[in-house]
Design goal:
Rossmann fold; 3 domains; 42% helix; 6-stranded mixed β-sheet; alpha/beta; two-stranded parallel ribbon
């Protein structure tokens, strides 16, 4: 798959995209003799995916990963959907942070930072810091210049959160059932997802863990157009100003959000969860305030630096 071909697919009208996506879903379903499932997060993308798949195959099971970090509105919405199996991780999020570290910037950058911080290999450091392989050739698998200062951050950084909270429980499900995944990811969401798509296309039949991503070439506008076209019910969380609805406490991509980011919005919509996010671990929270301060991302919504509307002093959580 070439970059130019992907751009051509992304430029197609929604009706043509639906036809092409349906073709990929059929190919996947028939290849695995119906032993497939829909990865259903309760978000808008997977809601569209669910509708697409069940329009063709009404009895396909959906699987919801209950990490304990989902917005309450997402959890409520998931309960309204039929034929959904719930799986759960063995480790709680605060324990993941304590053992591995915080998910910051992106999975890719967190992974490279973790490797550099935990290796004694100068070859590996040179690869991910300077972009030079052992043989002297260049590599793109490096820590961005903008984020190199995070190598010495005063807190742990890791990409293990998704691995522990999501991938492990769903892999257990797959092993027990023999079902293969249909997921609702799109290439526009990250460089990593674009790389995977350019390598495998929508249906990665030959992967160690086979996965179908039939809406990979869609974009966010397509998702909302489809919702409007079929008058789909979706989670009310999107009507509260959120741009994304993954784990409530995830910091991946927050630095890219325009207008109010997810934490600024959470301050007014979910104050209890917000307080839990920002308080230091020693104070019974997750300690996100110190991390967001360090990466220069605001988490307060046009309020006094020292207080929230409820009078909670957040200045005490900041790094001085």
């Amino acid at each position: 798959m070439e970059q130019i071909e992907l751009k051509m697919l992304q430029a197609l009208p929604i009706d043509v995209k639906i036809l092409k996506t349906n073709q990929r879903i059929r190919e996947w379903y028939e290849y695995w003799n119906g032993k497939v499932y829909i990865s259903f997060s309760g978000g808008k993308d997977s809601t569209v995916l669910l509708h697409l798949v069940r329009n063709l195959y009404p009895n396909v099971e959906a699987v919801f990963i209950d990490t304990g970090l989902e917005f309450p509105e997402i959890r409520s919405f998931v309960k309204t959907i039929d034929n959904v199996t719930t799986v759960r991780p063995k480790m709680q999020f605060n324990k993941v942070l304590e053992k591995y570290g915080y998910p910051v910037v992106s999975k890719e950058q967190s992974h490279y930072i973790t490797l550099v911080r935990n290796t004694k290999s100068e070859v590996l450091k040179n690869k991910h810091i300077n972009g030079i392989n052992r043989d002297g050739s260049k590599t793109q698998f490096t820590i961005s210049k903008k984020w190199k200062y995070l190598i010495t951050a005063p807190f742990k950084i890791s990409d293990q959160c998704c691995q522990v909270m999501k991938k492990r429980p769903v892999k257990k499900y797959e092993k027990e059932t023999g079902n293969t995944a249909i997921i609702g990811t799109m290439t526009e969401e990250s460089v990593m997802r674009q790389k995977v798509y350019l390598k495998n296309g929508c249906n990665a039949f030959e992967n160690t863990r086979p996965i179908s991503a039939p809406i990979s070439f869609w974009n966010e506008k397509d998702i909302w157009d489809y919702i409007k076209l079929y008058n789909l019910t979706y989670s009310t969380i999107y009507d509260m100003g959120y741009q994304r609805t993954g784990c409530m406490f995830c910091m991946y991509g927050v630095h890219l959000e325009k207008g109010k980011n997810r934490f600024q919005t959470m301050q007014s919509t979910h104050p209890k969860q917000y307080e839990y996010c920002m308080k230091n671990i020693e104070q019974g929270g997750l300690g996100l305030a110190k991390v967001l301060d360090y990466i220069n991302v605001s988490y307060r919504d046009d309020l006094d630096d020292k207080k929230t509307a409820e009078g909670v002093n957040y200045q005490q959580y900041r790094i001085t």
